[in-house]
Amino acid sequence: MNYFQLIQSFNQQLIKNINEDNSIDDLIADQYISKYHFYRIFKAIMGFSVGDYILRTRIYYAAKMIREEKEDMLTIAIQFGFQSQEVFTRNFKKLLGVTPLKSRKIALEDFGALHALKPVNLDAVLMEIKSKDGKVTIEENAVHLDTCYFVGMQWISDEDKVHTIPSKMEKFASLIEGVTFNFDEIIYRICHIIDSDAQPATFNEFIGVAIDFQSFNNDTIDLPMGMTLLEMREGNWIKYAHKGAILDNSKEHIVDTYTYYCKHRLAFSSFRLTKSRFFEVYDMKFFFGINHPETQIDLYFEVENE
Fold first, then answer.
1. 163 and 113 inside one domain
2. What pLDDT tens digit does each residue of the chain (306 aa) get?
3. How far apart are CA 202 and CA 271, in angstroms?
4. Which site in 5, 13, 146, 230 is 20 to 30 Å from 176, CA atoms measured?
5. Dist. CA 255–CA 246, nearest whole Å
6. In the chain, how many domains are there?
7. Range of 249's domain?
8. Is residue 132 in some structural domain?
9. Residue 69 falls inside a structural domain
10. CATH no. for residue 197?
11. Is residue 14 domain-shared with residue 150, that is, in the same domain?
């Protein structure tokens, strides 16, 4: 059984029936799994309980309605399953830091707490889950990487420019043809020097291939115009994977995968992100195109030393 698909199906049912008073039994009726086993799976994958997730999702959609429509607060509270406006306001403020009325005045780009409640999409998340004797566990793949050396192209980018990845990949691929030094058929997208305080967050985006230390220190290396060298110092990383389309029409599936790993897996783990570096590995053995459903790439997040 694919537990991620199980939770994704539950999530879709929840959103579809967000204004109805459905029980958890109703929402998982088609999944052929006991409610108590589902609770354990959900907590292991999402980091919090089913009840907490339902509350967060209702508050998220209620907050969106408050911003988009002129309904009074009591009507919205009742519509999203709250017994009174007081209960609704208390939970709203607990999760979003402001009252429902005051939330109307916050610009959407400044409302980080609201973005954090957005329901996750698990379609492309790839992790190994173990279930034994009623216990569900997911082990993080922690690795230490020595200093690595790369040659490639670098830009200043931000988190709203995911759609530019394909054109940058194509530009790099056209320039790397015909170089005289050896490299594997693996492309790296490295994001570093990240400014998380900027809106949207900005970073140096590097797309390139790995080279050996000797080539890196060779002053006579013939670099194509527009390319540069990059040294990525050693560090501790958590390795995850994305399987499925990265971009597909107007959908940025890779963003959904990042959201899950950063705001659910790592946020509720014992690891702490450095927020200074992350990178993606495009191995041509498993990369069949940006919008191919069988494409698989690895994602590495730098974490602090324990």
1. no
2. 688 888 998 898 899 888 887 777 777 777 778 888 888 889 889 988 999 999 999 999 999 999 888 889 999 999 999 989 999 999 999 999 999 999 988 887 778 888 888 898 999 999 988 877 778 888 889 999 999 999 999 999 998 899 999 999 999 988 887 676 677 889 999 999 888 777 788 999 999 999 888 777 777 677 878 889 999 999 999 999 999 999 987 788 999 999 999 988 888 888 999 989 999 999 999 999 999 999 999 999 999 976
3. 23
4. 146
5. 8
6. 2
7. 143-303
8. no
9. yes
10. 3.20.80.10
11. no
Say yes or no: 114 and 240 in one domain.
Answer: no
Establish if 157 belongs to a structural domain.
yes
State whether 166 and 108 are in the same domain.
Answer: no
- pTM value is 0.88
Question: What is the 3-state secondary structure of the chain?
Answer: CCHHHHHHHHHHHHHHCCCCCCCHHHHCCCCCCCHHHHHHHHHHHHCCCHHHHHHHHHHHHHHHHHHHCCCCHHHHHHHCCCCCHHHHHHHHHHHHCCCHHHHCCCCHHHCHHHHHCCCCCCCCEECCEEEECCEEEECCEEEEECCEEEEEEEEEEECCCHHHHHHHHHHHHHHHCCCCCCCCCEEEEEEEEEECCCCCCEEEEEEEEEECHHHHCCCCCCCCCCCEEEEECCEEEEEEEEECCCCECCECHHHHHHHHHHHHHCCCCCCCEEEEEEEEEEECCCCCCCCCCCCEEEEEEEECCC
Domain identity same for 152 and 270? yes
